[in-house]
Write a structure and sequence with these properties.
alpha+beta; Nucleoside Triphosphate Pyrophosphohydrolase; 7 strands
Length: 149
């Protein structure tokens, strides 16, 4: 990447009946990270379409996007790309049916550190801190989530 570019990421805020939010623990680009489920917008895709595609890729099941929660409102340099600015869009979402994928009770619950490894876990919103998340925009979203829920 030689020219300045924008990178757009779209994430789901999924809250269960116990007031816990779903977190994704991942090993990607040789980096351990905890974030909200979701991923990168592809050219020609709308943000909600992106999030539904990401849900099928990550969970293997569909979600219903309920409402917009937050869009990055400050400058955030992309961490993995030299000349890029990151925008992240967060939506409240819920599953269309009971969860059919594994939910762990511990972070990074995958057998090997292989790029693309991922596990999911619930975290109480009351106990959620910015230190639970890896990236600055997710950390801001965690603070906003605690204020509103």
């Amino acid at each position: 990447m030689t020219e300045k570019q924008f990178i757009i990421r779209v994430y789901a805020i999924i809250i269960n009946e116990k007031k816990e939010v779903l977190l994704s623990d991942e090993y990607v680009l040789d980096t351990m990270m905890t974030k909200f489920p979701g991923g990168g917008l592809e050219f020609g895709e709308g943000t909600i379409e992106c999030l539904k595609r990401e849900a099928m890729e990550e969970f293997g099941q569909s979600i219903n996007v309920v409402s917009h929660f937050y869009t990055t409102d400050f400058y955030q340099k992309a961490i993995f790309f030299e000349k890029a600015q990151l925008f992240s869009i967060y939506y409240f979402a819920r599953f269309n049916e009971d969860i059919h994928f594994k939910i762990s009770d511990k972070p990074f619950d995958f057998p090997n550190k292989i790029n693309g490894s991922q596990s999911f876990r619930w975290k109480s919103i009351d106990d959620l801190t910015i230190d639970d998340l890896t990236f600055p925009i997710d950390q801001k979203v965690a603070e906003l989530l605690k204020k509103t829920h």
